[in-house]
Write a structure and sequence with these properties.
Blueprint lengths: L1 H5 L3 H17 L6 H13 L10 H11 L9 H13 L8 H13 L3 H21 L5 H13 L3 H11 L9 H11 L12 H4 L2 H7 L3 E5 L7 H5 L3 E5 L13 E4 L1 H10 L10 E4 L12 E4 L15 H9 L6 E5 L22 H5 L7 H13 L4 E2 L1 H7 L3 H12 L16
Parallel strand pairs: 1-2, 1-6, 2-3, 3-4, 4-5, 6-7
Length: 423
């Protein structure tokens, strides 16, 4: 039972698959490719409900790519393109969504975002069709339908699904806030009034800070937008520990779980005094000190992430929008398409392992993060500086290709992940 509890999360299973494949490759000197494939199948099949069955030609292309270090490093693009072509040929109609998600998770563990996208795109429509054809769905399935409907930008189905979900919620603390957010992105949504309570959802002190105000969300990339940022009514950063290293003020900071714990364990629970508000992802608000607005974030963006969770940028935007800002503009953020270059290393708490900081994996699926932010950007619910606007205009296909170009070549020089949580 311990094995299945440990690997019940897809991100842990994906790491396990990768470790197994890497170990088989390390010990494959005496094996031909056919024997190597049998070794991989056998070891992955132990204690797993997933067998990774794909045509041998696909696996051979995959192994050729992983062993490119024995060839000329410049050939990685050629091997990646060969694998992409083999993946396009696959008949995925007989695969189920579980298999497709597992394959996608494995591929992005290796930085193969463009290849994995082929599996990921099929997941959404296949899952939605499966759930709609089943008249008896539990809350988990209904929530998956909400996420899938949002990815397909079917906002009428988003609203219908949310109204179906409402009575099934055991803990309804997020529900009013979720209704407010959906009403924000889909004004014609007809709210179930018996569950819609604005007063219950919104923090009055935080509302007074944000309502009608212009908000700049500033990420970690070094920038020259100091004057423009300072002209915003409210400046928001992530994981703020103090003003050292910043040329702009900070009014509100959002903290992920790791950095919230850091405030409690290493700063005596004392929030920087120059803040007007601090918002925490985890429920530690009773363990921190400060004469300011302190509240727990409503992780609304998670409801629109298909089988994964939102990272800090989508979470922050989704938390701010219901408080009715006049404008939100994102600065100094490029959705991870650079590998640490140009990043302000004083920004927040940088983990020792740089892979955890920058490398997008299945825990915060880059496809879901991008689709969420792209929708808000396209519908003028948020705006962006040059770096962010460039990424938003790429489209998801080119975005995933950019991630692959950036990270796949870095793969063999990145140390294995040891950090258990990312933002």
């Amino acid at each position: 039972m311990g094995h299945y509890r440990r690997y019940r999360h897809r991100k842990n299973r994906a790491k396990r698959y990768k470790n197994i494949i890497d170990n088989c490759l390390v010990n494959s000197n005496m094996l031909d490719k056919s024997s190597l494939l049998k070794c991989i199948y056998l070891n992955i099949g132990k204690g797993s409900k997933f067998n990774l069955k794909l045509p041998q030609t696909w696996w051979l292309s995959f192994i050729d790519l992983l062993t490119f270090a024995d060839k000329k490093s410049g050939d990685i693009g050629l091997y990646a393109n060969t694998l992409y072509k083999e993946t396009i040929k696959l008949d995925l109609s007989k695969k189920n969504t579980f298999e497709l998600f597992e394959l996608y998770a494995l591929l992005i563990e290796y930085g193969l975002y463009r290849v994995g996208l082929i599996f990921r795109i099929e997941c959404c429509s296949m899952l939605a069709k499966c759930i709609l054809n089943n008249k008896k769905n539990n809350l988990l399935k209904t929530r998956q339908l909400l996420s899938a409907s949002f990815e397909m930008e079917d906002l009428d189905m988003v609203g219908k699904t949310l109204n179906t979900m409402g009575p099934k919620f055991k803990d309804k603390s997020d529900l009013p806030f979720l209704y407010i957010f959906v009403k924000k992105i889909h004004p014609s949504f007809k709210v179930n009034n018996t569950l819609y309570d604005v007063g219950r959802a919104l923090d009055s002190n935080f509302y007074s800070l944000i309502n009608g105000k212009s908000v700049a969300i500033v990420g970690p990339i070094e920038n020259n937008n100091f004057d423009e940022i300072n002209n915003f009514d409210i400046i928001v950063r992530f994981n703020y520990k103090g003003s050292e290293g910043y040329l702009n003020r900070t009014d509100i900071s959002y903290y992920n779980g790791q950095n919230g714990d850091y405030i409690v364990d290493n700063m005596g629970g004392n929030i920087p005094k120059d803040l007007k508000a601090a918002v925490f992802k985890t429920p530690i608000v009773n363990n921190v000190n400060g004469n300011l607005c302190i509240r727990k974030m409503h992780s609304i963006a998670d409801y629109f992430m298909l089988d994964n969770s939102a990272n800090m940028l989508p979470n922050t935007v989704a938390d701010l929008l219901p408080y009715n800002p006049s404008k939100i503009k994102v600065f100094s953020c490029n959705m991870n398409i650079s590998f640490g270059h140009g990043y302000n290393l004083s920004y927040g708490q940088i983990p020792v392992n740089i892979r955890e900081k920058f490398y997008p994996t299945i825990g915060h699926d880059p496809f879901s993060q991008y689709k969420f932010m792209e929708f808000l950007y396209k519908n003028s619910l948020i705006y962006g500086s040059e770096e962010f606007a460039h990424v938003m205009t790429l489209g998801v296909d080119q975005y995933m290709e950019s991630l692959q170009n950036q990270y796949c070549s870095q793969l063999f020089s990145i140390e294995p992940s040891t950090n258990k949580e990312t933002c």
